[in-house]
Each structure stands twice: as C-alpha cells, then as structure tokens.
Amino acid sequence: FSALGSNVLRMSSGVQVKPKTAVQKSKKSSPLLCSLEPVIKTQTKPSDKLNPKTIDPFGANSRPPSAFAAIYAKGGIPCRLMHGSVKHRLQWECLPETVPFDPLLVTLAEGLRETKHPYTFVSKEGFKELLMVEGATEKAIPLLPHLVPVLKAALAHSDDEVFQRGLDALVQLSAVVGPSLNDHLKHLLTNVS
Known about the structure:
Helix content: 40-55%
Strand order of the largest sheet: 1-2-3
CATH topology of one domain: Serine Threonine Protein Phosphatase 5, Tetratricopeptide repeat
Radius of gyration: 32 Å
CATH architecture of one domain: Alpha Horseshoe
Order of helices and strands: EEEHHHEEHHHHHH
Number of helices: 9
Distance between the termini: 75 Å
Oligomer: single chain
CATH class of one domain: Mainly Alpha
Structural class: mainly alpha
Number of strands: 5
C-alpha cells in the first residue's frame, strides 16, 4: 500500500480505498459487503501438526528406489542396456565369464521383481546370459540357498509379468544346476502351483 494525499490508499490492483475511521472500525461490518483487506494470518490445520509430511500425488516420485535400481544406478551391475533399432541387448563391461557370480547372480535375481524399464530387461537378460557362460553350473550351485528365497519372492509377486520372469528364471536355473535344485523345490512348488 502507498499513501496518496488525503486519506486515500491505492492498492497494487489500482483500487482506491479510504482508510476506516475510529467510528467505522467499531461498527460491525455487514455480511454482504466484501472486505478488500488482505488476510494476513494463515490458518494452520490440526493435521499439519500431526502429520507434517503429506503426500503430493502430483509431485515427483518420492519413493526410494529399490535395492536393484540403486545398485544399477551406482554401476554395481557390470552391464548396460543397449537400445537397438529393433531389439535391445546387454553390453557387458567385461566378459560375463570373468564376473563373480556370488553377488551378481543373486542381485539379478532380486531384480526380477522390478516393474520399471530398464530394470526388468537388465535383470531378466543378465540372469539368462550369466547362466549361459561356461562353468555356470559350478558357480551357481553354491548360490542356491541364496537364490531360492529370491526366486520364491518373484513367484509370489502379484504382477503376472514378474511371476513369468521368476518362472523363466527358475526354468533356466534348473537347466543349469540340474538335480541340485531338487532339495530346494519344496520351497518353490507352492508358489508355482
């Protein structure tokens, strides 16, 4: 507000308002009249004190990334998605034969539960390509106690595509490790049925 001469205030919108006198201030204003005075005091809701963090449905996704997505973003998986004109493929930073199976195969199996691209493709193809390397049988058999619970979680997922990826991975793992998987089937059969 800026004062202009004799008791007239000019608002930023160009409206001229005379300031109230002491007599006018004591009178109650009519409910039909609009006040041009801005409301300075903001009302706080009780829920603001109880729940200071509210969810903004239109805001950016504030949900933290999954473990697989975080590992992939940090470069912990030695392969990347290569977009082709017709077909996608993985490009490995080093030969898959030289990659240690111990953390990587289990991490790729955990990624089978992902529902977003490129994580779905990287986990599915990476798991398959890792099991196709020479000597995969000897490297995968010791990891069965770690792989079975992860595959069981993928088979128990409510998303049909996640279930299908888990089932495909189980078939691929079974073809590689053979009868070594028999001891662990009791944990998987209820989810498969």
